[in-house]
Each structure stands twice: as structure tokens, then as C-alpha cells.
Specification:
globular; alpha+beta
Length: 214
């Protein structure tokens, strides 16, 4: 007697959905079953069995870098951004999280002297790099302010202050890149830094002041 070939293996979602009419399923059970059916079961852990999600091996790496002159070695999730490394792992909250999508510039820091958006930079790619944040511009609380920090005070170039660290770090990079020869050039090369309070005129004046004294 011929036997039918076995069909494809049944998923937990199929078992749940075939147990009764759809209307009889609880909302939570239906969502769990749908997630399983669309491939939302991660790392071999079933959504339906209520077991804890497990982390796949190899998702963490050790990275060594210099931050504000101090050598740091940390183990982080491979998906950790430089912004989160600074704020959550190294206790440096001066670098601000604004849009977290590279659009506002609030998280601007210097990596090997170049401006980068911390939220778009993976920490694990910075092995051996030298990072400077707003906390590293002045060596101590008792030390004089960095010329651009002082210029921001002199020119009243901030209001709420949330974007100020990123503005200052971008301005420092702009000056180092020799991109601060005129107000027009400063506006062009700092256009990626948004000030929601609208202090752009004074920010440009502050960068120009620091550039003239450099």
C-alpha cells in the first residue's frame, strides 16, 4: 500500500492556529503565533514556549582606544555606537544624543582629529583610535576654557545648550581643517549641526573669533 510522502514540518504557529477558530485565540497568543510564522523566532528560541531569548555567541568584542588622552579597554556589543560607548560605558555624557540618526550633529566628536557623528560610528571599528569629546577640550575644571568654548561664552552662542557640545566639537574640527576663513565658509562646513534655538549667527561669530586667534 502506497503511503503519502511526509509533508513539511509543522511550526508551533501552525499548531496554535489550527487549535480552534481564530476568534477564540487571545490577542497575545495570536501575535506570538504570527511572529513565529513570519520568522520572528530568533537564535532558535521559540516565541511560543515562553523561554528567555538567548544571545548568540560572538556578538561582543573588546576594543581599546584613547579617549581624551586616557587609554580605555572595554567589551561591548558589536552594535554599540561610539555615542553609547561614551555615554553608557565611559560615563562621558557631554556628547549628546539628539536624533540618533546622523541628522543633527549633537553627537559630534573628533576621531583621530576628524569630525564624526558618534551615533553613526560603531565602537568596535575604533581599535587604536584617538577620540576627543567636549570633556577633553579643557584638561581640568580649573584649567582655562578652550578658545572656542570661551568664544561661545563671549558671543552668547548658545541658548538651551543641548547642541552646544556638538557645535563646539564641529567648530574645532572646522578650524583644524582650515574651513573657517569666512562666515560663508563656516556656515557651509558646519551645516550638519542643527541649533533648534536658532543661534546660528552667534555660533558663526564664535567660530570666527576662535579661528582668528588660532
Amino acid at each position: 500500500m502506497a503511503t503519502e510522502p511526509p509533508g513539511p514540518p509543522r511550526s508551533p504557529a501552525m499548531d496554535v492556529l489550527s487549535a480552534g477558530p481564530l476568534s477564540a485565540l487571545s490577542r497575545r497568543t495570536f501575535i506570538a503565533a504570527s511572529a513565529a510564522a513570519t520568522g520572528a523566532v530568533a537564535f532558535g528560541c521559540s516565541v511560543l514556549d515562553g523561554g528567555p531569548a538567548t544571545t548568540a555567541e560572538g556578538l561582543e568584542s573588546q576594543v581599546s582606544l584613547t579617549v581624551n588622552g586616557a587609554r580605555q579597554t572595554v567589551t561591548v556589543d558589536n552594535r554599540t555606537s561610539l555615542l553609547d560607548l561614551l555615554r553608557e560605558h565611559l560615563g562621558l555624557p557631554g556628547t549628546k544624543k539628539g536624533c540618533d540618526a546622523g541628522a543633527c550633529g549633537a553627537c559630534t566628536v573628533l576621531v583621530d582629529g576628524r569630525r564624526v557623528n558618534g551615533c553613526l560610528t560603531l565602537a568596535v571599528r575604533l581599535e587604536g583610535a584617538e577620540v576627543t569629546t567636549i570633556e577633553g577640550l579643557a584638561p581640568s575644571d580649573d584649567a582655562p576654557l578652550h578658545p572656542l568654548q570661551q568664544a561661545f561664552v563671549d558671543q552668547d552662542a548658545f541658548q538651551c545648550g543641548y547642541c552646544t557640545p556638538g557645535q563646539i566639537m564641529s567648530g574645532v574640527g572646522c578650524i583644524r581643517e582650515d574651513r573657517a576663513g569666512s562666515p560663508e565658509e563656516i556656515r557651509e562646513w558646519m551645516s550638519g549641526n542643527i541649533c533648534r534655538c536658532g543661534c546660528y549667527v552667534n555660533i558663526v561669530r564664535a567660530v570666527a573669533q576662535a579661528a582668528q586667534g588660532s
